[in-house]
UniProtKB/TrEMBL annotation, chain A:
Keyword Transmembrane: yes
Family indicated by similarity: Belongs to the binding-protein-dependent transport system permease family. LivHM subfamily.
Protein name in the entry: Amino acid/amide ABC transporter membrane protein 1 (HAAT family)
A GO CC annotation given for this chain: plasma membrane
UniProtKB/TrEMBL annotation, chain B:
InterPro entries: ABC_transp_permease (IPR001851), LivM-like (IPR043428)
GO cellular component, as recorded: plasma membrane
Membrane-spanning ranges: 29-49, 56-74, 80-100, 107-125, 157-176, 206-230, 242-268, 280-302
Identification of the protein by name: Amino acid/amide ABC transporter membrane protein 2 (HAAT family)
Automatic annotation (TrEMBL), chain C:
The organism of origin for this protein: Mycoplana dimorpha
PROSITE patterns in alphabetical order: ABC_TRANSPORTER_2 (PS50893)
Name the UniProt record assigns to this protein: Amino acid/amide ABC transporter ATP-binding protein 1 (HAAT family)
Pfam families: ABC_tran (PF00005), BCA_ABC_TP_C (PF12399)
GO cellular component, one term: plasma membrane
A single MF term (Gene Ontology): ATP binding
InterPro entries, A to Z: AAA+_ATPase (IPR003593), ABC_AA/LPS_Transport (IPR051120), ABC_transporter-like_ATP-bd (IPR003439), BCA_ABC_TP_C (IPR032823), P-loop_NTPase (IPR027417)
PANTHER family documented for this protein: CONSERVED COMPONENT OF ABC TRANSPORTER FOR NATURAL AMINO ACIDS, CONSERVED COMPONENT OF ABC TRANSPORTER FOR NATURAL AMINO ACIDS-RELATED
Keywords: ATP-binding, Nucleotide-binding, Transport
CDD domains from the UniProt entry: ABC_Mj1267_LivG_branched
SMART domains: AAA
Length: 292, 326, 248
C-alpha cells in the first residue's frame, strides 16, 4: 500500500510538471497557430541558464533561478516570437512547424557543444526527505513539486479568467478578428502568450531537472510527452492539458512499477494512438475546440 | 527550358552519377551510395510533405521496417529481389493503418502520431531481441547476387543502388504525372475546392502517405545490404527529422529537391569535416534562416537568382511543379 | 410535374442564439435557373452551405434527384452530379488551365487504379479542350491559372464546375468582382450552357441586374425566411422585397 501511494504520488508530481509544459504548448498553439516542436528543448534549456548563471557569474542558486527565468522569458519567449514564429508564420503552419524542429536541433546541439555533452547535477529546490503520512512513506520533494505546479496552474487560470488582460488573451485565442474589433491589442496578447509559455517551460525545467539531471537530450522525451498530454487531455482548455499531464504521469509510474519497465516509454504513445482513434477531441475536449 | 533540354540535362546528371565513383576509394563510394539511399527516402517523404502537405516524422521508422524485414528474410536465405517487395508492402500497409486514424482529425496530427510511432518502433526493435537482436542489431546480411552481376564489391553495389534509384525516380515521376499526382497537387493548393470537385481528399492524402512510407521501406531495403549491420539507433526520431529537413532544404514539392537535400545532408558534412560538432548547429540555424526568407528551399533560391539575373527566361518546368510548403 | 432536381425541406441553422436560416423549403426543376437573393445577412450563404454539406444544418433535408443527400461529404455530393463554385476565387493557381479543368473531371472517370496506371490526362484532354473553348479560353490553355486576370480566373472557376457534366450547379456570387465586359460574356456563356445541356442552376448573387437577366425564377430571403418567390418581373414589383431591401 505504501509503495502504491508513493508510486501514484510521484506520478502525480511528475505529471503536474508535464502539465505545465503541455499548458504552455496549448496556449501558444491556440493563440498564434504555432505548433512548437522545440517545446521539449524549451524545458531542457532553462536549467542550463541557471547552471551558467552559477558557474559563469557566480550567482547563488536562488538568484540563478531568477536569472534563468528572466533569460528564458527573453530568449524562449520574446526572441522566439520575434525571430522565428512571427516571420515564418505567413509562410504557413507547416513551414513554421519545421522551423521549430530545426530550432530544437539548434538548441540541443548548442548545449552539447558549448556547455557539455555530459549530464550535469542540478540542485533541488525542495528538500528530498522522506516523510511519513498516515503510515505511508512519501517523498517531500514530490509533494512540494505537485503543490507548486498546481499553484502555478491555479494562478494562471485565475489570471486568464479574472483579469482584464487574461480575458483579452482568451478572446484573442478564440477569435483574433473579433478581438481586434473589440479593441483588444491582439499583437500584445500573442506576445504575452509566448512569454507565459517560456515562463512555464522554465518553471517545469527547474522542477524536473533535479530528478533527470541536466542533459542536452532531455527535451526529446519531455516534448513528446507534453504534446501527448495536451492531445490526450483535449486542446481547448487548461484543465485538459492538466488532466492529460497528470494521467500520463501516473500511468507511466504504475506501468514502470507493476507492468513492464522495458515498455514504460511506450505507454504514452499507445495512449495517444488510442485517443486519436476513439476520442480525437481528447478526454475533456469539445469538437469545436479541435478545429485548430 | 524545353523538353529536349530537360531530357538532356537529366541524362547529363545520370552520366555524372555513373562517373562520380570511378577511381574513388571505398569510403567515398559508400558515402555516395548512402546519398542515393537517403534520396529515395526523401523522395517518398516529398510526396507526403511536398505534394500532399502532411508532416511525417516516421520516415526513419519506415526505413527500419524495410531494413529489418529485408535483413531477416535475406538472413533466412531469401534473395533480396524477393525480400524487398515484402518490405515495401509491409511499409505501405503500416502506413495505411497509421495514417487512417491520424488523418481523420484536422490539424497536424499526423506529425504527432508519426513521432510517437517512430519512438514505438525504436522501443520494439530494442526490446524484442529474440527477433531483432535488440541493441546489438543484425549483422552479415548478404548483398544480392544476380548471377552475372554480383554486388559484393562497393562499386558494384553503388551501381546497383543507382539503378534502383533511377527506377524509383521513374515510378515517382509516373505517380506525379498521373491523375493521382494532379489530385495531390490540387489538395495542396486548395483542399476545399478539390473536395468539391469530387476528390476524396482523405483517401488521397492517406495514399500519398502510404506510398511515401513505402519509399522509406525501399531505402531501408537498400541500407541493410549496404551497411550489412543494422541496429535500432540508426532509425531514431532524430533520423526522421534529418530526412524531413532534407526534403525542406532541397525544396519540398520539387521533383529534384530530395536529391539536392540529401546531398546537403549526406555529402556536405564530408566536405566540411573541419566544422565537426558545429556542423549541425550551423546547419539548423541556416535552415531557420532559409525558412524565413526562402521557404521553398534551395531550388527556390536558384529560381529567385535565376529570375533576378535572367528575368526574361521562361520559368523552368520543374519550378512550375513546386509550390513550397503551406 | 416531374421530380425536382433539388428539393430543400425545412432547413434550419442557428449560430449561438441567432437563427440564420429559419425553416426554408423550395424545389428546383430541370433546366431552371433559380436566383437566390436577399439583403446582407439574410441567410443566403448559410443556406447554400447547408445545401452543399459545408455546414451541418440543425434540421431539415436536402434531396438531389430524389436522393437524400443531407450530411453527405462534398466529394460524394459532387460525384452525384452536383457542381459548385465558391464566393472567393477557387482555382488551383500553380496548375495550368487545362490541368484545372481535367482535375475537375478525372474523379468521375475510371477507377482509383486506372487513375494511377492509366493515361496522365485520364483520357480527358479532348473533352477539357472543348469546355475551355466553350468558355473562350483556348488561347490560355497552358497558362498557369494563377497568372490569369481575375475575370479569366472566374471563367476557369465556373468551367470547372461544369467539367463532370453535372445535373445541378450552384454558383456562389459568380459576378462578384468581374468587370462589365467579362460579366456580359459570363452571363451569355451560362445561358448558352443551360440551353445546350439543360443543366439546372442555383445562383446566389448581389448584382441585381445580373440576376434579373440570368434567372428564370427568383427566391428572396430575408432574416432567414423566404419572403417572396416569382419571375424577375414579379420580384421587381413586389412591395415586400422593396421593403426588405430598403429596411435592411
Amino acid at each position: 500500500m505504501s509503495q502504491f501511494s508513493q508510486v501514484v504520488l510521484s506520478g502525480l508530481a511528475t505529471g503536474s510538471i508535464y502539465a505545465l509544459v503541455a499548458i504552455g504548448f496549448t496556449l501558444v498553439w491556440q493563440a498564434a497557430q504555432t505548433v512548437n516542436f522545440a517545446q521539449g528543448e524549451f524545458v531542457m534549456l532553462p536549467a542550463f541558464f541557471v547552471l551558467a548563471g552559477m558557474s559563469l557569474f557566480g550567482l547563488s542558486f536562488g538568484t540563478a533561478l531568477l536569472f534563468g527565468l528572466a533569460v528564458s522569458v527573453v530568449v524562449l519567449g520574446l526572441l522566439f516570437k520575434k525571430l522565428v514564429a512571427e516571420p515564418i508564420l505567413p509562410h504557413g503552419g507547416i513551414t513554421l512547424i519545421i522551423a521549430t524542429m530545426a530550432l530544437g536541433i539548434l538548441l540541443k546541439e548548442s548545449v552539447k557543444e558549448f556547455y557539455s555533452a555530459e549530464a550535469q547535477p542540478f540542485p533541488s529546490i525542495f528538500p528530498n526527505d522522506p516523510i511519513d503520512v498516515f503510515g505511508a512513506v512519501l517523498s517531500m520533494q514530490d509533494i512540494l513539486n505537485l503543490a507548486f505546479s498546481l499553484a502555478v496552474v491555479v494562478a494562471l487560470t485565475l489570471f486568464l479568467n479574472r483579469t482584464r488582460t487574461g480575458r483579452c488573451m482568451q478572446a484573442t485565442a478564440q477569435n483574433p478578428a473579433v478581438a481586434e474589433i473589440l479593441g483588444v491589442n491582439v499583437k500584445r496578447m500573442i506576445l504575452y502568450t509566448f512569454l507565459i509559455n517560456a515562463a512555464l517551460a522554465a518553471l517545469a525545467s527547474f522542477l524536473i531537472t533535479p530528478v533527470y539531471l541536466a542533459k542536452f537530450s532531455n527535451g526529446e522525451t519531455l516534448g513528446l510527452i507534453a504534446f501527448i498530454a495536451a492531445i490526450v487531455g483535449g486542446f481547448n482548455q487548461i484543465r485538459g492539458a492538466l488532466a492529460g499531464g497528470l494521467l500520463i504521469g501516473v500511468l507511466d509510474n504504475l506501468t514502470a512499477a507493476y507492468v513492464t519497465a522495458e515498455y514504460r516509454a511506450a505507454l504514452p504513445l499507445v495512449l495517444l494512438i488510442v485517443i486519436i482513434l476513439v476520442r480525437p477531441q481528447g478526454l475533456l475536449g469539445t469538437k469545436e475546440g479541435r478545429a485548430v | 527550358m524545353n523538353v529536349r533540354m530537360r531530357t538532356l540535362s537529366i541524362l547529363g546528371l545520370v552520366a555524372l552519377a555513373i562517373a562520380a565513383p570511378i577511381g574513388q576509394g571505398n569510403y567515398i563510394i559508400y558515402v555516395l551510395t548512402s546519398w542515393l539511399v537517403f534520396a529515395i527516402a526523401a523522395m517518398g517523404l516529398n510526396l507526403t510533405l511536398g505534394y500532399a502537405g502532411q508532416i511525417s516524422l516516421a520516415q526513419a521508422a519506415f526505413m527500419a521496417i524495410g531494413a529489418y524485414v529485408t535483413s531477416l528474410l535475406t538472413l533466412a536465405g531469401w534473395h533480396w529481389i524477393l525480400a524487398m517487395p515484402l518490405a515495401l508492402l509491409a511499409c505501405f500497409v503500416v502506413g495505411l493503418l497509421l495514417g487512417y486514424p491520424a488523418l481523420r482529425v484536422k490539424g497536424h496530427f499526423l506529425a504527432f502520431v508519426t513521432l510517437a510511432f517512430n519512438t514505438l518502433v525504436f522501443l520494439v526493435l530494442r526490446n524484442e531481441d529474440w527477433l531483432t537482436g535488440g541493441s546489438y542489431g543484425l549483422v552479415g546480411m548478404p548483398r544480392p547476387d544476380f548471377g552475372l552481376f554480383s554486388t559484393m564489391k562497393q562499386l558494384h553495389f553503388y551501381y546497383f543502388t543507382l539503378g534502383v534509384t533511377v527506377l524509383a525516380a521513374l515510378a515517382m515521376w509516373g505517380i506525379v504525372r498521373s491523375p493521382w499526382g494532379r489530385a495531390f497537387k490540387a489538395l495542396r493548393e486548395n483542399p476545399i475546392r478539390a473536395e468539391s470537385l469530387g476528390v476524396d481528399t482523405r483517401r488521397i492524402t492517406l495514399l500519398a502517405f502510404a506510398i511515401g512510407s513505402a519509399y522509406g521501406g525501399l531505402a531501408g531495403a537498400l541500407v541493410a545490404p549496404l551497411v550489412q549491420f543494422i541496429e535500432p539507433g540508426s532509425f531514431g526520431v532524430a533520423h526522421s527529422l534529418r530526412i524531413l529537413l532534407m526534403v525542406v532544404v532541397g525544396g519540398s514539392g520539387y521533383f529534384f529537391g530530395p536529391f539536392l537535400g540529401a546531398a546537403v545532408v549526406i555529402l556536405l558534412p564530408e566536405v566540411l569535416r573541419f566544422a565537426e560538432g558545429y556542423y549541425l548547429i550551423i546547419y539548423s540555424a541556416l535552415v531557420i534562416v532559409m525558412l524565413v526568407f526562402v521557404p521553398s528551399g534551395l531550388i527556390g533560391v536558384w529560381g529567385r537568382l535565376h529570375e533576378k539575373f535572367w528575368p526574361r527566361h521562361e520559368i523552368r518546368a520543374d519550378l512550375k511543379e513546386g509550390a513550397g510548403l503551406k | 410535374m416531374s421530380m425536382p432536381v433539388l428539393s430543400v425541406r425545412n432547413i434550419e441553422k442557428s449560430f449561438g442564439g441567432i437563427r440564420a436560416v429559419n425553416g426554408v423549403s423550395f424545389d428546383v426543376h430541370k433546366g431552371e435557373i433559380l436566383g437566390l437573393i436577399g439583403p446582407n445577412g439574410s441567410g443566403k450563404s448559410t443556406l447554400f452551405n447547408c445545401i452543399l454539406g459545408q455546414l451541418p444544418p440543425d434540421g431539415g433535408d436536402v434531396s438531389v434527384n430524389g436522393r437524400n443527400v443531407s450530411g453527405m461529404r462534398a466529394s460524394d455530393l459532387n460525384r452525384l452530379g452536383v457542381g459548385r463554385t465558391f464566393q472567393q476565387l477557387s482555382v488551383f493557381p500553380k496548375m495550368s488551365v487545362l490541368d484545372n479543368i481535367i482535375l475537375a473531371g478525372q474523379e468521375h472517370h475510371g477507377s482509383m487504379l486506372s487513375r494511377l496506371f492509366g493515361p496522365g490526362d485520364a483520357g480527358l484532354t479532348a473533352e477539357a479542350e472543348k469546355l475551355i473553348a466553350f468558355f473562350r479560353l483556348s488561347h490560355l490553355r497552358d497558362t498557369l491559372a494563377g497568372s490569369l486576370s481575375y475575370g479569366q480566373q472566374k471563367l476557369v472557376d465556373a468551367a470547372m464546375a461544369f467539367m463532370a457534366g453535372p445535373s445541378l450547379v450552384l454558383l456562389d456570387e459568380p459576378a462578384g468582382g468581374v468587370n462589365l465586359t467579362m460579366l456580359a460574356g459570363l452571363k451569355e456563356r451560362l445561358t448558352a450552357y443551360n440551353a445546350e445541356h439543360g443543366t439546372t442552376f442555383v445562383v446566389i448573387e448581389h448584382n441585381m441586374e445580373f440576376v434579373m437577366s440570368l434567372c428564370t425564377r427568383i427566391i428572396v430571403l430575408s432574416e432567414g425566411s423566404i419572403i417572396a418567390e416569382g419571375t424577375p418581373d414579379e420580384i421587381r414589383a413586389n412591395q415586400a422585397v422593396i421593403d426588405a431591401y430598403l429596411g435592411g
